Structures
1.
Amino acid sequence: MKKMDWVSLGYIASYHFCLAIFLPLYFFYFSPSKTLIFSMIGLVFACGIGITAGYHRCFSHPAYKAHPLVESVLLFFGNLATQGSALRWSYEHRLHHAHVDTDEDPYSVTKGFWHAHILWLFKARPPIDDRIVSDLKRNPLIRFQNDYYLPLLIAQHVLVILFFGWVTNDYFGSFVFCYLLRSFFSHHTTWFINSLAHTWGEKNFSKEHSAVDNFIISLLTYGEGYHNYHHTFSNDYRNGIKWYHYDPTKWLIFILSKLGLASNLRRMNFEKIQFQLILEHKKELVKKLTQSFLDSKEDLIERVHKQADALTSALEDFIQKGRRYREIGKDLKEIKNHLKLEIRAVKDQLKFEWRNWDNLSNYIHKLKKPA
Ligand SMILES: [Zn+2]
Ligand SMILES: [Zn+2]
């Protein structure tokens, strides 16, 4: 039997137990004020952002660089979220990405939904391999938080309970809502990313891993529900790439960059995403045809490969010519004008190949199984 992490198990079990006792008891004798409810929601959100914008996108990947002031605030709320130090969290998260769905993935969903959600936390965890987080070990703020994680955690919780108890004039309410219930929400919403975001949703960008995209999970996880995209392009500071995708973490990072408080925001370029989508679509069509009983399936598979090649080379051509156009100086007007015409022709070719691709895909999807 694997060794257990009794401290983790004891802590998580006992605060859930206290919540199950004290929350009904509170409602039996009192009713929470609006200030208390909003304080709890604010704290849940701040802790969640501390994890997603701090622990996850800034430290684990790192998809952007935060100003030390921002790092300190994110570490403060990340610490309050009670999910271990940023160093350990990032170490385990880097293992998760590098070995997703295998035995070396600490919260592999292949061992079951509940393993990925919570049970993995109860198993004794191996020491941190410094080579995997050597960059983070050079950051004095991260070292400090890692060294004083527990005393900081205790001090923060005492201060939070006392502060909100004083603000609301309800110390018992502050204990139940701003500590117990807040911990419950901020834990389970993060854990959803390892469990739900690896089981319930669509694989839009890659079928090579279990991560899925799901808008509803994004609502609960501050934008981390676009997890299929995230596992496919993990260094992008965005998880939801469309402007309307609910990803408050992305919006916050973007605003911070405009205020000069975040820099080096990494984005996967549009072309690479398109190439990946064509590749995935091709795999899907080939799989469908391979599993079919059609006589002509070999011919169709060949057509899929050829059309995908034609489309990607037209896309590549378009990208390269566009890049050259941007690089040429304004003074070389004639060359620029000539290139402009070439780009127009390539664009038409690209549109033509996209149309052919869509027609072929629709044709394959409409094929019926022989009776
Ligand atoms: Zn994941
Ligand atoms: Zn990640």
2.
Amino acid sequence: MDLPKTARPARMLEAEELKALEVDGVVCARGLLGLQTIEALRFALEEAIENLPVLGGALNRAHQGFHGDIFVWKLSDAFRDLALFSCLPELAQQVLQTPSVRFFYEQFFVKRAGCPVDTPWHQDIPFWPVSGHQIISFWITLDPVSRASSGLEFVPGSHHWRERFRAVTPGHDPYMMDTDLPIAPNYAALREEYGVVGWDMEPGDVLLFGPVVCHGSDANASNSHDRRALAFRYHGTDVRFAPRHATMPLLWEHGLEPGDSLGGSLFPQVWPEVIPSEVERRMEGPEPPSPLMIKKFLEHLVAEGFGPDGEKKLFSASDE
Ligand SMILES: O=C(O)CCC(=O)C(=O)O
């Protein structure tokens, strides 16, 4: 099988950007992606919202102009190509300094103009069924963004904190929240005390951040501009499968046991190269979630006390 050629970055990260990432847990890298990539993603994102729901029912508040989803790369070729064959894997390796890099997953967060939905302050790692440290997220905006139009904000240095907070999704989806953990304070109301940072960004600028730094974003107060963002996440060799009772569901068969390295066709290697056997099925065409994995997840929801209407909550095309 011939795989597409992996793109080289237009530029590598500068030493001061890597330093900021180390010290603050986040950095805004200007002009990392070209406008052609942004345009392709805009098209693919709107298509995904319309036609390719993975967890469309769960992560949406469509009636309020909020759309979210995960693992769309399994269905959308543009998402797949950015995940596997773009400059992001090489940049992830530059950050993680690990012998190999794998694609973890991607997630989108769309707040249409005037969308009142905020993203509660949280750390990412409690949302995921994994352990480890070598994870980097690339947050890509497809629209100019400021704090007023829901730019993402961070508590610098919070990636060194030992405390873990509940990962609350913008939809407050209860079945993905580890209620054993406390809810994070609203750091936007403690801006001065914690030195909260955020950036006005243009399409092409990218935020890089780790799995523990506290972040959140406000509603989109702009009446005229959507705020469409995607996070593409990569991991290194220290990341392992560590399922807990309320985390992001994995709806493709992965064959992983707790403690296994996070790999295989759901988490394919992307650096130093893509391994053909891991992506063969996906390269043949869209790969919908596994009915067996959906069934297992729905059974898990019932066992966790979320009732038999889990399917409707998770997979209905609309929340209206
Ligand atoms: O875009 C947002 O509002 C949230 C993004 C986020 O929390 C993430 O990518 O981890």
